[in-house]
Write a sequence for this structure.
């Protein structure tokens, strides 16, 4: 027996009697093999299984799977950044709320005064400044009161988004259920307080509407205001009568203690008594108000919906063009939208609230001037540019979810889905279509703002 055969037998745990005899004879004649047989460590290694010596092929993958996906330092930095964002948004919200409260308080002191008293205090009807101030106050009353439900709904969405995003104590009801109940309750309360259709009669107190026609049958101890609805007065008004996009009809014997404004340029005052001034038309406003929802023309409702649908379609087409030209720059915002949709939505709604407040203030001031109304469409166009980018970002995110790719052509499918939803709702519920459009735009706008530090997206 040679040394190789001897070492092979040494590795075996069980030997036959013949193998033991051959091995013993070889060990007696070979000192090297005898030393190997006497080495305890060598015997242990020879009889050990190979799997105990060599690591498993999946050892590295198992260890890497148990390690955190992101380094602790990166996680800490992200938490600190999120905390700074929360503090910044909370501070901006408090500042914005304080500014709104102060401005409303100051403006309330002016608008609650009788317009006739304002005319008398600033030089009477012959004063150009008094006439401008009168136009500004009446337009402000109509716009602010008419847009109150929209602002209330937007504030409601911001509050509910904050409820969802912020870390709140665990409730006995799911947070989604609580949010849904609160949202539905606020929507019902706003719609009940500010009806958008049908006629209403005023018996006491003031009356405000968005597009519902108003009829005063006995009297009103306050202002009668509408944004787009017609106003018919058959009694005594202890305040102003103003509508930005409708008509004002004062029946014979009616008395208005304040002033009268019809942005559509249609005021009928035969046989009526008006203490203050009368503003009949605001320059180009009558042409824009010809298709106002408060008009008596039966075809104007369809024209209004058609105009809104065409506007939404043009906006979505511009979003598609934006996506094709700057598709790569929108990818980072799209990724952020998919990672944190609720936080992005909250930031977008807050930005929408700020933009809406600024647009309302600027449009109100411009509407009070003769030539300023020409600039209102330009202001609205500039305000809508961020929402066009937002629609493009949401379309990019939808395209990625559908096709799994960030190619701009796939983002067009996402924009097409939004177009189908918005335009379909325009035929059934124009208000729902408008809210859906701005929700989608706010979602993308929030994503663009959230990633503004790390991308070159601009609008």
């Amino acid at each position: 027996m040679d040394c190789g055969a001897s070492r092979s037998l040494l590795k075996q745990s069980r030997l036959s009697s013949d193998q033991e005899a051959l091995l013993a004879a070889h060990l007696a004649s070979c000192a090297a093999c005898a030393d190997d047989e006497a080495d305890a460590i060598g015997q242990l290694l020879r009889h050990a299984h190979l799997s105990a010596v060599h690591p498993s092929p999946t050892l590295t993958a198992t260890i890497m799977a148990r390690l955190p996906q992101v380094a602790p330092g990166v996680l800490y930095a992200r938490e600190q950044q999120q905390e700074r964002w929360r503090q910044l948004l909370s501070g901006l919200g408090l500042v914005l709320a304080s500014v709104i409260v102060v401005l409303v308080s100051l403006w309330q002191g002016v608008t609650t005064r009788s317009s006739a008293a304002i005319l008398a205090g600033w030089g009477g009807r012959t004063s150009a400044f008094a006439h401008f101030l009168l136009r500004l106050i009446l337009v402000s009353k109509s716009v602010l009161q008419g847009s109150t439900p929209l602002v209330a709904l937007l504030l409601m969405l911001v509050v509910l988004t904050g409820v969802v995003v912020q870390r709140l104590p665990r409730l006995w009801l799911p947070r989604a259920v609580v949010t849904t109940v609160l949202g539905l309750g606020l929507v019902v309360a706003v719609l009940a307080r500010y009806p958008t259709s049908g006629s209403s009669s005023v018996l006491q107190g003031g009356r405000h509407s968005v597009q519902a026609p108003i009829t005063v049958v006995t009297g009103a101890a306050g202002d009668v205001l509408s944004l787009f609805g017609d106003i018919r007065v058959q009694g005594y008004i202890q305040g102003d009568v103003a509508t930005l996009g409708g008509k004002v009809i004062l029946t014979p014997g009616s008395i208005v203690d304040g002033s009268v404004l019809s942005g559509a340029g249609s005021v009928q005052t035969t046989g009526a008594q008006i203490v203050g001034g009368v503003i009949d038309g605001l320059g180009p406003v009558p042409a824009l108000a010809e298709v106002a929802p408060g008009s008596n023309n039966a075809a104007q409702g369809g024209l209004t919906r058609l105009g809104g649908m065409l506007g939404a379609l043009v906006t979505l087409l511009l979003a598609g063009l934006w996506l094709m030209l700057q598709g790569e720059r929108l990818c980072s915002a799209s990724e952020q939208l998919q990672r944190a949709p609720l936080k992005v939505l909250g930031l977008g709604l807050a930005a929408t609230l700020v933009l809406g407040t600024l647009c309302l203030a600027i449009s109100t001031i411009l509407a009070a001037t003769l030539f300023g109304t020409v600039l209102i469409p330009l202001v609205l166009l500039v305000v809508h540019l961020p929402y066009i980018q937002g629609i493009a970002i949401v379309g990019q995110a939808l395209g990625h979810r559908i096709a799994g790719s960030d190619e701009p052509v796939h983002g067009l499918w996402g924009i097409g889905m939004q177009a189908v939803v918005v335009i379909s709702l325009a035929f059934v519920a124009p208000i729902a279509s408008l809210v859906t459009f701005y929700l989608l735009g706010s979602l993308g706008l929030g994503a663009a703002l959230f990633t503004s530090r790390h991308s070159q997206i601009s609008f």
Q: What stands out?
A: The first strand starts at residue 200 and ends at 202. The two ends are 89 Å apart (CA to CA). Residues 70-106 form one domain. Residues 282 and 300 are 20 Å apart (CA to CA).
